[in-house]
């Protein structure tokens, strides 16, 4: 799906002959005054008459044009450019509502000191990450759980303490107990741990894409637009992160939908939920066979070489290395930090020269860098990191 356009409404008005500058308005006003038969001949800029007209006519007209019309009315008249509550009204026009923020929920493994003893994990027990770009992400145990004797570890349902996509972190990120739990030696979130992905409140861009798609749904034919609308209504899924495979992958009348999350891998529990909704709950067309899958990934081992500026001390060098690693991991969709960094995408080329330019822009103390891998050309797959080594030189 196409991204929302960036529209210069002032230029469009000027192209239609509407005066949008002080000089253009003064010329138009002078023509109107002359046409009305004015006998005033002093057209100097210091003329009391024209100074009065500028104050009473030109300045208010410019405010109406540039602040009210160009800056407010026109942008909020279209789903492509509307913001905030005006975008909510546009969504209401086509039967949609902005998706609210939701909190990540999933399984965290608690490893016991001794398998022979039972251990109680109290509700509210917190599990945290290391500091990521200056922030610590935290989960809390939902209900009190007892891991019985004879088990070396147990899976406990936990939920993020705040709503948002940023908590959908990959396996191994949640590994710290801020407060000691008696009988527990370690915690970690396992692979495919998320049962309910978290999401930010749907932003104007994502809602605008759903509104655009909704116009293709009104016929209720089960084409891409209808399935895209159904799947994108689920928290955590953007309309432009759904990719269809046609050509009857399982025979006539079949198609696949591949789902990509903004942060982290697509949870198996989410895919199961989508497939139940589409196929078992009757939300598919006559003869249709649509199956949902997590978008496949490709694994890449990456080595990043950094040369800091000569005057940096050891502490600043270590900080530079940590920040560069976090930015690269963000580029490969492990976290939602550093939104300025370009993310990997399917059906595209991931440019390491662009990534290097972004690292230079965000890290002024970085003198030079190199990556030991050529650009990644991805088809119907999302590039992921199998390993990342950051080597600091100098």
Describe the structure.
Helix content is 30%, strand content 22%. Strands 1, 3, 4, 6, 7 and 8 form a 6-stranded antiparallel beta sheet that branches. Strands 9-10-11 form a 3-stranded mixed beta sheet. A 3-stranded mixed beta sheet has the order 14-12-16, covered by helices on one side. The protein is α+β, with helices and mostly antiparallel strands. The protein has helices spanning 9-15, 22-35, 48-73, 85-93, 204-214, 224-232, 268-280, 314-331, 352-362; strands spanning 105-112, 119-121, 126-128, 138-141, 145-147, 153-160, 184-188, 194-196, 242-245, 254-259, 289-294, 297-308, 348-350, 366-371, 376-378, 382-392. Helix 4 (85-93) runs parallel beside helix 5 (204-214). Strand 10, helix 7 (268-280) and strand 11 (289-294) form a beta-alpha-beta unit. The longest helix has 26 residues, at 48-73. The mean pLDDT is 87. The protein contains 9 helices and 16 strands.
């Amino acid at each position: 799906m196409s991204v929302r356009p960036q529209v210069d409404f002032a230029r469009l008005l000027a192209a239609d002959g509407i005066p949008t500058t002080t000089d253009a308005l003064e010329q138009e006003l002078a023509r109107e005054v002359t046409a009305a038969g004015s006998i005033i001949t002093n057209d100097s800029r210091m003329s009391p008459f024209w100074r009065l007209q500028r104050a009473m006519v030109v300045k208010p007209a410019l405010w109406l044009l540039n602040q009210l019309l160009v800056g407010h009315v026109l942008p909020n008249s279209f789903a492509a450019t509307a913001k905030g509550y005006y975008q909510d009204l546009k969504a209401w026009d086509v039967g949609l509502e902005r998706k609210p923020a939701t909190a990540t929920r999933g399984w965290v493994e608690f490893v016991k000191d001794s398998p022979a003893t039972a251990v109680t994990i109290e509700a509210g027990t917190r599990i945290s990450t290391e500091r990521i770009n200056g922030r610590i992400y935290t989960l809390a145990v939902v209900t009190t759980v007892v891991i019985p004797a004879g088990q070396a570890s147990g899976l406990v349902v936990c939920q993020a303490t705040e709503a948002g996509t940023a908590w959908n972190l990959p396996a191994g990120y949640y590994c710290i107990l801020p407060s000691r739990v008696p009988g527990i030696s370690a915690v970690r979130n396992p692979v495919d741990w998320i049962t309910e992905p978290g999401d930010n409140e749907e932003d104007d861009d994502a809602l605008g894409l759903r509104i655009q798609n909704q116009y293709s749904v009104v016929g209720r034919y089960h084409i891409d637009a209808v399935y895209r609308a159904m799947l994108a209504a689920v928290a955590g899924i953007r309309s432009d992160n759904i990719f269809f495979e046609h050509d009857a992958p399982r025979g006539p009348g079949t198609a696949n939908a591949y789902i990509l999350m903004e942060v982290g891998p697509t949870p198996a529990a989410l895919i199961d939920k989508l497939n139940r909704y589409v196929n078992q709950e009757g939300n598919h067309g006559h003869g249709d066979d649509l199956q949902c899958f997590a978008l496949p990934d490709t694994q890449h081992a990456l080595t990043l070489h950094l040369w800091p500026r000569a005057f940096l001390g050891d502490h600043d060098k270590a900080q530079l290395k940590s920040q560069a690693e976090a930015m690269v991991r963000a580029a490969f969709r492990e976290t939602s930090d550093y939104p300025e960094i370009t993310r990997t995408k399917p059906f595209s080329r991931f440019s390491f020269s662009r990534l290097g330019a972004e690292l230079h822009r965000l890290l002024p103390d970085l003198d030079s860098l190199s990556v030991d891998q050529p650009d990644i050309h991805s088809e119907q797959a999302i590039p992921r990191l199998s390993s990342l080594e950051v080597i600091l030189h100098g």
